[in-house]
Amino acid sequence: MRLTEAEGKALLRRHGISVPRGLLLPEEGLPGQAAGWAGLVLKAQVAEGGRGKRGLVRLVAPEELHAARDAMRALLGAQGAAVGFLLEEAAPVSRELFLALRIDGTAQGIELLFAADGGVAVEEGDAPLRLLLDPGAPGLAEVIHAALRGHLPGELAARVARLAARLAGVMRAEDLELLEVNPLAVLENGSLLALDAKLVRDDAALGRHDAAATEASAALEEAALSPLEREARSRGFTLVEMPGDVALISAGAGLGMLLVDLLADHGLSAASFMDNRRGGAAETTEARLEAAFALAARPGVRAILFYTTLASRPVAERIDTLLAFLARHPAPKPLYVGFAAAPSASRGFDAAAAAERLRAAGVARLVDDPLALVGAMAADLGARAA
Amino acid sequence: MSVPPFLLAPPRRVVVLNPTGRYAARQVAEMRAAGTPILAGIALGRGGGMLDGLPLLDSLAELEEPADAAVLYTPPEGTGDAIRQCAAAGIGTVVAAAEYVPVHDALRAAHAAREAGSWLLGPNTLGFCIPGEGGTLLGSVSPAFCTPGSVTLLGRSGTLTLATARLLTRAGIGQRAVIHLGGDAVIGRNPHEWLAALAQDPATRAVLYCGEIGGDKEYALAEAVAAFAKPVVATIVGRHAPADRQMGHAGALIGAERETAARKLAALRAAGAHAAATPYAAIDILRELLAP
After folding, report:
1. Which of A14, A46, A185, B138 has the least CB density, counted as fewest CB within 10 Å?
2. Same domain for B92 and B168?
3. ipTM of the complex
């Protein structure tokens, strides 16, 4: 989950990392604590980059505050309703740096990225310095300092190194996959301040952390989903909607992506991708069918493809679920079905009888090889092979 | 570079951690039916009991002799700790099935396994199958999808590994081993490490790698391909996946151009791998490569 800037900075503040003074802007008025601030910066809390260029971060005078907020809402359109606005004290910045930490899955460590020119310049400047960290190693700040020394004056290099070592600890404590501070401001007095922060928390670890502290981030993530995607999430599986003409029901990420590819190779395109979701029900076949049938009811969707591999779960159960569903919900478009079942999944199962029952229930084709199944579908639909 | 112990000799003393859940119990039954020598299940609080004739113990420490392989059906929150326990017990092969293991837990566990010299598969793995008489099943790669031979299949996705093993078997191409490395961003050993190990495996004549979008493991693999004397055929799924959407696995998200299937395939091709658009095309290439 990508955290909003406000929630990300609140997290950093809890760990003693310096961030600007800030508050969420109320609908009316200027909060008393902001009255004495040296300057005001208003920032729309959308979880995306390039906000400055889009006019979603602005230096404002107190009397312009709400007009600026309204202008940002107008820029955001329908998305604006779910977005909060962070009001911060402007800081006397003398220099901007770029500092990020990310999980490097291949090197199996935390990778530090640093550039001496931060802010928007980081996209145009030289490639950042990269350093693989062992966050548990003693003397981490010294290791980082040795790498930064050639890029920054000694004392500043030491400050940044100490901060980076602390942030590596924050990464672990907070189950973050990414912690990017850009810009990391060097103030006129030489101290460091995280002017902006992009934090991504590992979804697998969400249960370990206080959900209330990331409520706005969760709401934004939810708002970005389509209604069907939200429904899928609530019913225990992941749905990715795509502009396509075949509603695809599959299980397993790799097999699902293979089917998406095979459809495209045959001049068709998947309108959906499905996978399991953490904490979901053990059996979501019926919910997946409902989602696919809802997609298939749309005019641009021409067919439904249902394919699954069963290594040990009984194939008979899956077919019974499908037949029971079809008895209640006739397929709105031609339905193509395939199963790859291991013998242990097919024990005591009469494949010929099942095929007959599926045909009787309106299944257009039953083919157990994914390529042959997609090929048959493309031929039936008159799609042109790529 | 070390070699996974199970490629040198089949494991003889296998334990299963948390074997009593519905899914785990079914996999334990499949493994036993396949001849896997499971000594005991480790289930805290169930010690002294039995699971379909399999003795249950409270702790690894209660084994009379150390295990040489472990299959973990421990829930994700406990998987990191369970892996580290196995590493500390000197277990050479560890298969960690759980999906949704927090990535920082996986990092710590992968380090511990590596330092102990253990080969960790997963987290988020179906394990592996070495097909044939005297073969081995650790996990859920159904032996019925496999047939003995000389191609080692390395897969990042469980369902795709199963589907591809089945396609290989149908095409008459036997497998030395079918190995699901794990679908997460952090897995015990990366594809390039497996390739280096397979260089030392005389029973492997060729390698089929099935990868997916997201992450950068294929770039390290490409470097290893250049130094690998046997043929490598590689395919990457997700050629038509949308950018910035997570396609199931925690790592399967195109966050940058270099994480696309096209770029990964190009890198592997440039390094000397036979790049294939689909597993079907990969199998056609293998058929030609292995023709007598």
Report:
1. A14
2. no
3. 0.95
